[in-house]
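We now fix the convention by which a protein and its fold are recorded. Think of the row as the fold of the chain written in a discrete alphabet. Here is one such record, which you should read through line by line.
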Amino acid sequence: MASEPLRPAYLLTGSDRPKIARAVARLRGRFGDETIEHLYADMTPGEDAVAACNALGLFGDGGRLVIVDGVEKWKAADARAVGGYLESPTPETVLALIAQELKSDAPLVKAVAKGGEVLQWDVPKRRLPGWVAEQFKRLGVQADRDACETLVALVGDDLAELESEIEKVATWAGEESVGARDIELLAVHAREAPSWGLSDAWGTRNVGEVLAVYESEVHRTEPFLVGSRLAAHVTLVRNAQRLAAEGKATRDIAKTLGVHEFRVRKALGHADHYSSDELNDALVRLADLDAALKGNSRRPADVELELALVDVTRTR
């Protein structure tokens, strides 16, 4: 869009809002600020948008850009107005229509396709890790698959929030590559989510690493929260282990448990180091920890937590 001749109209739609925003920015870069008018569909019907295009064209002093945001709210009459306009559009004027997701047979899609260009950018949830990798690459940063999946699992599927986190991590990384651990340290704490460093160390049955992670990071968190988060992870591992033993695939397990597939893969990796009885024992020990932290022990909370961490990691 930056170098090719501009079409009379563009319809920019889809779930990839960051990409749409960049496309609009490129469009704006080809016009002077004084030649751009930004309208909103909830206050501007199709006929008024067409009138803005025609009126702006009367000045005859170069290209004009009319942007209308939120056109998924328009009705069939608005689409007909745009279709009629595109039969004889004003020279050097571009109409840019921005919409949330629209069906391919929507009247507005058909109207713009006849005289302009429809640009639809969608990112299915299953492709989110790949999308994250592409954004890191765009910013000159290499991120491996684990890093991308970790970010999606922690942040969710809101592309705007993901892009914000990607930009933050990329700024920190500079030209260095990014791994899952970097994502956990940078993105997780920003959202007050639990560090996965502890659960990963527990998952590999590394007592020394569990205590090291606790000393370096987790000790800043309330012991009760650390215990409850680890208990939740152990529960996930136990459930994933059970479903896998029943012959369920990773994707089916994720759907059944209502978690991201990446978390299931991580949980199954941890399950390889524990028997079902050991996982049950770990949950009993963490329940005892919960009771101790709620007043059933005279020992300091951090001492109770450290003892429990050692017990659940080396359980045999």
Notes: Residues 38 and 135 are 27 Å apart (CA to CA). The chain has a mean pLDDT of 88. The radius of gyration is 27 Å.
